[in-house]
Design a protein that fits this description.
The chain has 289 residues and is mainly β. Helices cover 10% and strands 39% of the residues. It contains three helices and 20 strands. The chain has helices spanning 26-30, 48-68, 106-109; strands at residues 74-75, 83-91, 97-100, 113-116, 130-133, 138-139, 150-154, 157-159, 162-166, 168-174, 180-186, 189-196, 201-207, 211-217, 224-230, 235-237, 243-249, 252-259, 266-272, 277-284. The protein has a five-stranded mixed sheet, covered by helices on one side. Strands 16-5-18-19 form a four-stranded antiparallel sheet, with no helix packed on it. The chain has a four-stranded mixed sheet with strand order 8-7-10-13, with no helix packed on it. A hairpin with a 2-residue loop joins strand 7 and strand 8 (157-159).
């Protein structure tokens, strides 16, 4: 952390029981890994680094979700003496890559390719990283209700690849002229599983529980997305420059969590002072092999 905190926040590793979780192929993890990430279309063949990150994220977020549910968030209205946390999430290491081998519907899905698992922009900022306060007893209201959150299948990718929503309704759509079977999980338990055979088809569903929802496609094995369901509005998803801002926070000390699916989860205490702003730099570390 920098600014008022005077230091850079580093990743804190956690000892996790890395057993089967979701649909990650542990057989693939036991095979010798090449220096480059690899995947086989139609099967969840995931390199060790990615497998560890996916399993660790799911395991940790299940625990965090349970902790968050211990005390329900209470809306008390505008926080007149609230503080603000701003900052940037950065990454300075070698960006891990995922090899995507497209052997189905190439006219829609495109050619085989390598995708970065951590998207780094200007100033080493990391996009699509969630920063949130794990437990907040009470505070500001949620943003005004707008459109129902949407998860779209677009050119055999999920858009958005990562999003944060309040528990409740979700629309799942297919923009492609091919069948997608969108399958989502809370841990190993199916959250929803739906076939979308028609272009521009939309199916509505619900995500009622706080936690991390991993999404894949049973028809295109390389597709993967993330939906984080939160129980309070004190969160931010970083932009392309890695910057974030959380406002209207009641004064106090909180556990702040930084979550990027392929990096080590970071938890750190933060103290919010009434009417003051704290600026942080949070440095991610890629999940280990």
């Amino acid at each position: 952390m920098i600014g008022e905190f005077g230091m850079v926040a580093d990743a804190v590793g956690r000892n996790l029981d890395l057993k089967h979780e979701g649909r990650v192929s542990m057989t693939a993890c036991s095979q010798p890994a090449s220096p480059r990430a690899r995947a086989v279309a139609g099967a969840k063949i995931i390199p060790p680094r990615v497998a560890v990150a996916v399993i660790a994220l799911t395991a940790v977020m299940c625990c965090i979700g349970q902790a968050d549910e211990v005390q329900a968030y209470k809306v008390t209205g505008p926080v007149t003496n609230g503080g603000t946390i701003t900052g940037q999430v950065v990454f300075h290491g070698t960006v891990p890559m995922k090899q995507v081998i497209v052997n189905k519907d190439p006219t829609v899905c495109g050619a085989s390719r390598e995708d970065p698992l951590i998207v780094v922009g200007l100033g080493q900022g990391v996009a699509d990283t969630l920063v949130y306060l794990a437990v907040v007893p009470s505070g500001k209201d949620w943003p005004a209700d707008g459109k129902t959150p949407v998860l779209n299948n677009v050119k055999c990718r999920f858009e958005p690849a990562m999003q944060v929503i309040r528990s409740g309704a979700l629309d799942v759509g297919n923009k492609d002229p091919v069948l997608h079977n969108t399958h989502a999980y809370y841990g190993k338990r199916t959250a929803f599983n739906m076939a979308l055979p028609n272009q521009n088809q939309v199916i509505s569903t619900e995500l009622p529980k706080v936690g991390t929802v991993r999404v894949d496609c049973d028809a295109h094995g390389w597709m993967e997305g993330w939906i984080i369901v939160r129980d309070n509005p004190y969160y931010a998803l970083t932009g392309a420059d890695g910057k974030f801002s959380i406002t209207g926070i009641p004064p106090g000390t909180y556990n702040m969590v930084t979550l990027q699916p392929y990096s080590i989860l970071i938890e750190q205490p933060v103290t919010v002072v009434a009417g003051k702003s704290s600026n942080l730099t949070i440095e991610l570390k890629a999940a280990p092999h």
